[in-house]
Design brief:
The chain is mainly α and about 110 residues long. The chain contains three helices and two strands; from the N terminus they run H-E-E-H-H. It has a two-stranded antiparallel ribbon.
């Protein structure tokens, strides 16, 4: 049962964060797409992606409910996330040749 709860934690947050990222990309890069989620409101040259924003809000609310309702899944999911974040950070620092003695810093990706 705990494995199923941990799996549900990961799936819920994966879908929620993917929906949020699609909403952000649709807003920041509004060029034509092969497909779009319905309910896009057009304001002159800009299009407000209401459909994906509603989907992201509903998925985020379900993920938050899962976060509150399932204690063991929350602990395991957060531990899993922290361990993999640290592993990826160490791998990125190793590949760049930067030292491991400083605090973890977040840098914005360069824009094209």
């Amino acid at each position: 049962m705990e494995l199923a709860q941990a799996y549900a934690f990961g799936i819920a947050w994966s879908f929620a964060l993917k929906a949020v990222s699609v909403a952000v990309l649709r807003y920041k890069m509004p060029q034509a797409r092969d497909w779009k989620i319905p309910l896009n409101i057009r304001f002159g040259k800009h299009e407000l992606p209401v459909g994906i924003a509603l989907l992201a809000a509903s998925l985020l609310s379900l993920a938050c409910i899962n976060l509150i309702a399932r204690e063991r899944a929350t602990v395991c999911g957060l531990a899993f996330t922290a361990i993999f974040f640290l592993a990826f950070d160490v791998a990125a620092r190793y590949s760049r040749g930067t030292p491991f003695d400083g605090p973890i810093t977040f840098r914005a990706s360069p824009t094209r």
